[in-house]
Structures are given as C-alpha cells and as structure tokens.
Design goal:
single chain, about 70 residues, alpha+beta, 2 strands
Length: about 70
Amino acid sequence: MTLCDYFSAADDQAAVAVLQTPGGPGQAELDVVFLKNIDPVVAIAQLEAVMTRCSYEAAGERPRSGQLL
C-alpha cells in the first residue's frame, strides 16, 4: 500500500508548491497528520469526515472529494 502523509494548506497553490519542497509538507511548516495505510482514494472521505466532524456522506458528496490537484 502507498504511504501517504496528509496536510492542510491555505489553498491549492500552496498545496502544489509542497511538491517542490525538499522533505515535503513537514518541512514546508504545514499542519501534517502522519497516517500510514490510509489509501487516499478509498478512505479520504472517511478521513475528512473524522477531521472536520461532518458526516461521511457529506464529505463524499463534495465536488472535489478524491480529486487530485
């Protein structure tokens, strides 16, 4: 399984800029949650629901749910 780190950025441009930051989001001084074995395609709506305290259904129905930048 792919190992992913999840982070919060101010906007899409800031999130994409992390790709150019050696060491990734932690080195870019962003809020990072290190979660292993959480697949971003399969479980991102569930993860978002937990982190934002909304329902799984509401997270999954958002237009950008599961979309790449």
